[in-house]
Specification:
- By secondary structure, the chain is mostly helical.
- It has one domain.
- The protein is 79% helix and 0% strand.
- It contains five helices and no strands.
- Helix 1 runs antiparallel to helix 3.
- The longest helix is centred in the N-terminal third of the chain and has 42 residues.
- The protein is elongated, with a radius of gyration of 18 Å.
């Protein structure tokens, strides 16, 4: 009987470790992507000016969005503060889905729908990071 319990315990530890690896893989990919995007917006690099103006937003929005992205990444990566992490995940989700909708409503799809698909991919990474987070990062 103890062998079965021991096997279940070992299996549980493997599952927890696998989930933790998946969480950090997805979260670091999300953090790197959003950080690069935020820096690009703050520095107005790589077509960020055209992306914003084509949708009809004023250029100063790049400073606001870039700052929010960097602060959101910091909140998600730093230890403790689970409520702040919840808000950061929610903020990134609304930011990315809002970007996709803004481009879709402005008929600014980009090549092969890139301007809509990329923010939705970031939103999906954000959802995966939130869903896989360990107990220490939950409310």
């Amino acid at each position: 009987m103890s062998k079965v319990i021991g096997a279940e315990t070992a299996s549980g530890k493997i599952e927890v470790k696998g989930k933790l690896i998946a969480y950090w893989t997805v979260t670091l990919l999300l953090a790197a992507s959003i950080t690069l995007s935020g820096i690009g917006q703050l520095m107005r690099l790589g077509g960020n000016i055209e992306l914003v103006l084509d949708v009809g937003f004023p250029l100063y929005i790049t400073t606001i969005l870039g700052t929010w992205k960097i602060l959101g990444v910091i909140a998600i990566l730093m230890p403790r503060f689970p409520r702040l992490k919840e808000w950061a995940h929610a903020g990134l989700f609304f930011l990315m889905t809002g970007a996709a909708l803004a481009h879709a409503f402005a008929s600014d799809y980009g090549d092969y729908g890139f301007h809509v698909i990329l923010p939705l991919a970031y939103a999906a990474l954000n959802i995966a990071s939130w869903a896989l987070r360990p107990e220490s990062r939950k409310l």
